Amino acid sequence: MKKQFRVVDLAYMAICAALIAICAWITIPAAVPFTLQIFGVFCVLGLLGGKRGTIAILVYLLLGAVGLPVFSGFNGGIGALLGTTGGYLISYIFVGVIYWAAEKLLGTKLAVRITAMVLGLLVCYAFGTAWFMTVYARKSGAITLGTALGWCVFPFILPDLVKMGLAILVSDRVRKVLHW
Predict the structure, then answer these.
(1) Are 42 and 5 in contact (CB under 8 A)?
(2) Which pTM value belongs to this model?
């Protein structure tokens, strides 16, 4: 028999999808904008676990796909997902699935969660950068991998690791208080 989600689980997932949207709105504009989205994604996974967290991420992306302004710069719609930075957004699903798989196979120890988040972040960078290069080449001409990494990855590594650490800290503390 399949285990169904409780109403409270659905409410948590909806609240966490909204949390990612709020984090997306905190933006410093650039070719690839600096946002707190990845903080939101990591926080949601830490709060809800892999399965519910991945579903919350999917809900967030679906809200944006149908046109709600949940992405950075209050953007939404399929155009935002198909644009140069859309690969980073879509890769959040992979981040969630990696976290979910690690949790399912290895448990929820801190080392497992950190490793899963780091692997997810690497996949996010790889998928998002490949997507960026493809879409950018169609619009403006080809760029080198080094240029793409310089625009899309290198400036984000340290801030993203800090966001990851903060997300783990925040999600652990909130889970203890709310008994999620």
Answers:
(1) no
(2) 0.94
